[in-house]
Amino acid sequence: MIAYWMCFILFLVGxxxxxxxxxxxxxxxSLSIMEFSTFLFFAMIGYIDEGVAPIVDPADPVKVYVDxxxxxxxxxxxxxxxxxxxxxxxxxIRIYRKYGTFDIRxxxxxxx
Amino acid sequence: MNPxxxxxxxxxxxxxxxxxxxxxxxxxxxxxxxxxxxxxxxxFSIYSLITTGSKLSLYKVGGWEPxxxxxxxxxxxxxGFTVIVLCIINIVGFLSVFYSIxxxxxxxxxxxxxxxxxxxxxGMNGVVxxxxxxxxxxxxxxxxxxxxxxxxFGVEKNELEATFKYQVLGGIASFIILFGIGLIYWKTKTLxxxxxxxxxxxxxxxxYYLFVQILILxxxxxxxxxxxxxxxxxxxxxxxxxxxSAMLSGVLIKAVGIYVIIRLFFNMFAITEGMSILITTLGxxxxxxxxxxxxxxxxxxxxxxxxxxxQMGYVxxxxxxxxxxxxxxxxxxxxxxxxxxxxxxxxxxxxxxxLLFLNAGAIEYSIGTRDLHEMGGLSKFMPxxxxxxxxxxxxxxxxxxFNGFFSKLIIIIAAIMARFYFLALLAVIVSIxxxxxxxxxxxxxxxxxxxxxxxxxxxxxxFPMVFSMVIMSILCVLLxxxxxxxxxxxxxTPAIDILMDPSKYSSIITGN
Amino acid sequence: xxxxxxxxxxxxxGMVFMYGIYVIIHGHLTPxxxxxxxxxxxxxxxxxxxxFGSDFVKLMKEETGSTLYENLAILIxxxxxxxxxxxxxxxxFMNWMPKGTLGQLVSAGMLPLYNIFVGIxxxxxxxxxxxxxxxxxxxxxx
Lengths: 112, 512, 142
What we know:
Number of domains of chain A: 1
Order of helices and strands of chain C: HHHH
Helix content of chain C: over 70%
Shape of chain A: elongated
Distance between the termini of chain A: 46 Å
Strand content of chain C: under 5%
Number of domains of chain C: 1
CATH topology of chain A: Helix Hairpins
Structural class of chain A: mainly alpha
Oligomer: heterotrimer
Largest sheet of chain A: none
CATH class of chain A: Mainly Alpha
Distance between the termini of chain C: 22 Å
Largest sheet of chain C: none
Order of helices and strands of chain A: HHH
Strand content of chain A: under 5%
Radius of gyration of chain A: 20 Å
């Protein structure tokens, strides 16, 4: 039970970092921390007591397996997270070229 | 099983990648192919609207039948509410692509634009057609990554800052949604929406599900730009190129924001009074704060973006009134009227807000500025733009006989019949302030005589842009016909029935 | 890069490539499959570019090649998924090839085909991302 609470605390750490940090790269890293805590949470949900890895052995087909569905969901979500992070990095590089700084307090062209 | 359902997702995906390959070799292939694909989708969606009626089409991807009565596999569901939002997506998408045939000529990387546009449409079609929670998340991410790239299309300082804000807030929203989906899976061990409803009605722990509902409302509320989650919307919608603004503000915040909130809260969770009062409050706040922030704006696209927040507040307010009445268990016909007003306003807002953004793009194309101080007297030189803009402004302010009047009237009557007099008064006041704001827009842009306009040569915008704007304004006038009882029975009433009666939704899916 | 890095890369890159292909092809028997194998496959190409470096023109030509492979591979995946719709059983994404016996390499219908093409697609797209960021940095220096 304590492991699930640690996942949630890691999620909150990532959220705190995304809100309060000033450097653009640190905001991107905090978003990554948020997403990894969610993946940990998903992977921990599927555990059934005394289960083995869900690979079917042709010699011994009937056993207690852990739930394979959260593992498939986490694989898909990892790829989605990769795409999002790559997009964010490309935008950060272009912002650095236009504004010349990584500090988010300098990037305030749009107001109101 | 209806074979048309997976084609809504597969066809724009195939089109996006074909455009990337063949667009290098064949000149001008990308624009006509993208328009052709969206035209085919438009025809499919109108056909589905006519043939669906009140039945529910179910498509089991891969042919995986239920085992022991438990649905395994991915389900795609098309019912009355889905087919309305599908029509909106594909119609506004087709008109935006046709408009951008001549608008996008100023950028050089046209291949990427059309490919990302088709990808965004594929993602949105997937969100409204999916029948289980994780598929909603995957297609949401596909469409939103396309939107991030399209907002930053002309890579100047303003657009990059706008897309950075949009990406960070959208990313936080996506992970909050994923955490909520994980918490739901932990307790119910299934991901199908109908099956979760069945599992939730047996054992129900109130505080756990309250936490999950707040997470889901926050995540999708960030995507739908309800107050207090609206901070990314004015920058993103004003810095994007104009057809993308029309798509974002007219379709994306509805298909991935408001549609999912209404679907999950009516058909999946059991409605409690506390959540419905919270949703009504958020809707009322969005209405009021959006319009007060919009009055003082002098940039036309920022003005229109703030008005989007206000009009989405109307839809959330009416859904909230319906939820309060259902949770108290009194007056079901007033609840049905409120939800009908909300869905009708959703359709209308796509039409007139898309038209307003296309008009703003036409003004920017011919003059080159977006500031209201520097314009004036355009009605002589741009007759088509000024006529369609007049129709759209009258629609959004709620003047009869255009479509905005009827939907706002239904919402106000439902609020009065449910005895929420204060909310009805707020809706009327917000409508009057919207009228004031758009009269200012019309006067400064089109009817003000300044001497700077005579020094420049301003002519009407090219044919594809005029065609899109005229078709959308005809839609604005025709949509007011949805109140007539004959047409209303076949279009709006199936959507209301399936939302008001969640057991019908789940019994057909789990019974199959 | 120094001589040690270059020599080690020459020895290792081929083995990483073979390992990636092994993970992709055995996707229906052991953990892994399309995504993980594709990332390992891309890793071998990126290792070569990082160790030896390339000039700007060669990287641009490389990038057009990898974009083409990526789009082609995903079109073939979509075509395979639609083939269930067109031939025979009229269901999208259906696994209509014969299933075979449990535990063999050639079994489980269409799953190895999906794994191979998804693996090519993921490898090409990660290589494209890497090349796009490197090319932009080269452009920024000039």
